[in-house]
Amino acid sequence: MxxxxxIMEMERLxxxxxxxxxxxxxxxxxxDQLMRQSMKSKMSWIRKMxxxxxxxxxxxxxxxxxxxxxxxxxxxxxxxxxxxxxxxxGLDFWTNRIRKDDFASxxxxxTARHLAxxxxxxxxxxxxxxxxxxxxxxxLGFMLYQIASDPAASEMEQGxxxxxxxxxxxxxxxxxxxxxxxxxxxxxxxxxxLRQIDELVME
Length: 203
Known about the structure:
Oligomer: single chain
Structural class: mainly alpha
């Protein structure tokens, strides 16, 4: 009788243990799904920012084209501006690419490697973009200085050139910190996701 009771007790404990394991597995699956969704949401703002960059190119083409025509600047500089923007946006899309299944059901270790590489690539793109911007600024500054210091140019043309030059410098001084803020925010987003992946893999 005592032996039968022990067997029944062991069966009951085994049943409770199996139930506990099932609940634990379900909880881990829920936690896994919630964390993947959180990581996907954190990356979504970066994609939106990239599409804003794309929308900016036509606006820049029209605006810069009008200034080039009005002030007699080089159309080659205008073309360089568009190429610079297109290359920058293309590199941004390439750097920040994420496969659809990376956060849905992909291998988190591979995703972590991809995100770490993304951070390194983003730094390289930033350096390349700053070099292109410096060339753009020097070219523009040279053209505007020629107009502003040309004795044959009217006072209005000279004043307009100086105003454009000062406006460009102010724009860069404002835009550069904004661009760096976005860059560091993107890097911080990757770091946060990598930390989440570490927690997910360690479970």
